[in-house]
Specification:
Structural class: mainly alpha
Oligomer: single chain
Number of helices: 5
Number of strands: 0
Distance between the termini: 20 Å
Order of helices and strands: HHHHH
Radius of gyration: 13 Å
Amino acid sequence: MPIIDQMTDMAASGEPEIVANDGLIEPLTPRELKVLSAICDGDSNQSISRRLDLELATVKWHIHQIFGKLGVQRRTQAVAIAIHLRL
């Protein structure tokens, strides 16, 4: 079940929230956390590439991996989960 669905289920059931990277089935790598942070700051892929000194294709790969691990399809969903998990 995607993490976003788990968050909804937990909120409805009153279960404790998942907190931090440990709550993910597959934790984000340090580099993925930096890319996610840049996404949360509203940076474009091009800006993330410059900020982290990465090729644009590498940034896109990291974003693909992040979305897969978080079970999301959009940047806004990734930001919401990052805030919820306090990443």
